[in-house]
Amino acid sequence: MNFTHRVSIIGGGGNVGAAVAFALVVMQLPVEILLLGASEKSARAQALDIRDAAHFSTAHCRAGTSEEVGCSDIIVITAGARQRPGEPRSNLIDRNYVILDSIIKKIQPIKPTAIILMVTNPVDVLTSLAQKLSGLPKSQVIGSGTFLDSGRLRNYLSRKLNVNSNSIHASMLGEHGDTQFVGWSVASIAGSPLLKHPLMANVDLAEIENAIAHQAYEIIEAKGSTYFGVGYHVAALIKCILTDGHKIYPVCNYNAKYDTYLSVPAILGSDGATPINLNLSDEEEVKLERCAESVNHSLGQVNEFAVHVNEE
Ligand SMILES: NC(=O)c1ccc[n+]([C@@H]2O[C@H](COP(=O)([O-])OP(=O)(O)OC[C@H]3O[C@@H](n4cnc5c(N)ncnc54)[C@H](O)[C@@H]3O)[C@@H](O)[C@H]2O)c1
Ligand SMILES: *[C@@H]1O[C@H](CO)[C@@H](O)[C@H](O)[C@H]1NC(C)=O
Ligand SMILES: *[C@@H]1O[C@H](CO)[C@@H](O)[C@H](O)[C@H]1NC(C)=O
């Protein structure tokens, strides 16, 4: 069978990578999905399990090799160390930087038209690093960013307003982390500002924002990690890229104004992310700048760490 596109998932032996692959299978895309893990065993086991479902689908799934990853149309990265109890987030950044560095080296040469789709946390920081390490054009390196958080927001508003979430335009912006915020000033429903909707009159906006930004914590506390939600969202990004869909999605992409990677809406197609102008309120613009500073701060920590590692 000839597949139109190849999508490789590095970290495919883990929960998020496997959930992305499973969602692609369910979406009936004509793709060949390759899974790679730290150990061949786990990626192969996930691929075999998913293959048991894929015979209903136009997608195919198998374990892949590093050489095959480099010539993929989309390279999804979900590989990463998990945070140990009590461990500071900066440690996670350092560990995942080392993993990312080794992955990018292993999959060279990367096809010049490939898109790298970063999912590993802290996703906005690692997307920036993936671009630097791979040398691909900035438009071709994207992170899932606040796409999942925005889905959670639209889902919440959908229940509140009794309108399908696809008909509500609202996004979480900035960073897939605690500093993210709702872009209320650019949120709309049926062409009108969302905040002018009568049912939005008495809602506590700060409470919504806080609940969405922390929704993952409740899931992680009870079942250890989140994967179905992010899996389907990442698969939707892949579908949009492969079909050159030109949908506007809030993803982590390079922001020229702040000269760093940030999660803001961009047009997504086969050539990657094309930024759009957002006319945020002054207050929101300050919040966005704060997110840019936060991403930059983490990048600075990694740079210090990388220098230290190279000197050892
Ligand atoms: N961006 C988002 O919205 C979002 C949402 C949920 C989870 N995540 C992140 O996704 C990542 C993966 O989460 P998970 O639950 O799947 O974790 P997991 O532990 O189940 O899977 C991670 C996988 O990475 C593999 N790995 C480690 N080093 C590797 C290497 N050098 N090469 C290849 N594979 C390697 C591990 O073997 C493991 O199978 C985490 O960083 C998590 O924080 C992001
Ligand atoms: C941006 O929004 C402000 C109000 O917040 C408005 O005055 C201005 O015209 C808008 N600019 C554009 C380019 O839409
Ligand atoms: C982020 O870092 C880049 C590169 O060092 C710099 O040009 C930019 O001004 C910084 N942005 C913010 C908001 O600090």
UniProtKB/TrEMBL annotation:
The active site is at 176 (proton acceptor). It catalyses: (S)-lactate + NAD(+) = pyruvate + NADH + H(+). The lineage of its organism: Eukaryota, Fungi, Fungi incertae sedis, Zoopagomycota, Kickxellomycotina. This is L-lactate dehydrogenase. Its EC number is 1.1.1.27. GO terms for biological process: lactate metabolic process. Residues 6-143 form the Lactate/malate dehydrogenase N-terminal domain. Residues 146-305 form the Lactate/malate dehydrogenase C-terminal domain. NAD(+) binds at residues 11-17, 96, 119-121. It is an enzyme of class 1 (oxidoreductase). Pfam families: Ldh_1_C, Ldh_1_N. Keywords: Membrane, NAD, Oxidoreductase, Transmembrane, Transmembrane helix. The keyword Cell membrane does not apply. Belongs to the LDH/MDH superfamily. LDH family. The chain crosses the membrane at residues 16-36.
